[in-house]
Amino acid sequence: MSIHSEVKRVTTHILQEMKQRGEKISMLTSYDYSMAQIVDGAGIDIILVGDSASNVMAGHETTLPITLDQMIYHACGVVKAAKRCLVVVDMPFGSYQGNSKEALHSAIRIMKESGGHAVKLEGGAEIKESIIRILSAGVPVMGHLGLTPQSIYKFGTYNVRAKEEAEANKLIEDAKLLEEIGCFALVLEKIPSELAKKVAETINIPVIGIGAGADVDGQVLVVHDMLGINKDFHPRFLRRYADLHTIMTDAVSNYIKDVKSLDFPNSKECY
Ligand code: KIV
Predict the structure, then answer these.
(1) Are residues 213 and 268 both part of a single domain?
(2) Looking at residue 98, what is its pLDDT?
(3) Residue 175's pLDDT is what?
(4) Are 59 and 39 contacting, i.e. CB atoms less than 8 angstroms apart?
(5) Do 229 and 245 form a contact (C-beta atoms < 8 A)?
């Protein structure tokens, strides 16, 4: 039996225990009440209200346009549904980078207005002051290194990060720093598996990977990708657990057919 199958609420403390016991942590995104009910009900450890909502829910090309108000809106629905998992909310681009006071203000708005349990920020040393200030208010912080989509215009591509020694060394130093200043966990996105393994062995906080191989403490995917709702996204790291695009398209087509042919509603479906 897993350490947490009987717990009322997954906490940052429980995640730390899971790392120590070698029990893998499961994490998926959700952006609304209905999806979060399914994901939490299935027993996920962490729901991330990711700023990938910018792509998945709003149809933007990048994560940059989503606003703090919009993230809070998404998080509110998720928090209402999440009875057992820890809910982590992404701080959107522009809400924490420049000024630690503004970062704290943004984090407090997320916690107060959505009821989320923790926030996630992208970056290392360059956002140290913001993280320290948020932590000083008692808000748990999850870090995010490797491919950080809010910096897409700096990187230029969504290719694997930290393949070169200099970038890999900076990533290791940033991971150590995030642990030292008090982050409770770290997401590593799209980096070589060997590097992710090294980070997970070097730091004591849970390391959760997406495209970072198997030798980390947990895995995260975007729920619409793993359910096959998005059909045009095929990175190597993605495993599809369903083909909901086909199932939903067939259901809608059948409904249209039944309406047009006067088959729906039938006598039993009327008052
Ligand atoms: O926004 C998001 O969905 C994320 C995950 C990819 C980790 O940050």
Answers:
(1) no
(2) 87
(3) 98
(4) no
(5) yes
Distances (CA, A) of 36 to 25, 197, 232: 17, 30, 23
- Mutation to probe ligand 1, out of 63, 121, 237 (largest number of atoms < 8 A from CB): 63
* pLDDT attached to residue 3: 54
* Nearest ligand 1 atom to alpha carbon 222: 3
What is the rounded CA–CA span in Å between residue 159 and residue 180? Answer: 29
Same domain, 198 and 247: no
Q: Ligand 1 pocket test: pick from 46, 55, 187, 207 the residue with the most ligand atoms within 8 Å of its Cβ.
A: 187
Nearest residue CA, atom 5 of ligand 1? 50
pTM above 0.90, yes or no: yes
- Same domain? For 143 and 266 the reply is no
CATH code of the domain containing 155: 3.20.20.60
Question: Which residues have a catalytic role annotated?
Answer: 189
Q: Which atom of ligand 1 is nearest to the CA of 51?
A: 1
**pLDDT in the model for residue 4:** 54
Is the domain of 166 the same as that of 255?
Answer: no
Contact 125, 131 (CB under 8 A): no
What are the angstrom distances between the C-alpha of 63 and each of 49, 125, 198?
13, 21, 28
Ligand 1 centroid distance, CA of 246 (Å) = 24
Domain that holds residue 268: 243-271
Give the pLDDT confidence score for residue 231 in this predicted structure.
Answer: 86
Percent of the chain with pLDDT over 70: 97
Dihedral (Cα; 242, 243, 244, 248), 10-degree rounding: -150
Single out the residue of 156, 213, 205, 216 nearest to residue 183, CA to CA.
Answer: 205
Task: Name residues of the chain where pLDDT drops below 50.
Answer: none
Based on the fold, state whether residues 25 and 155 are members of the same structural domain. yes
> Residue 186's closest CA among 164, 167, 210?
210
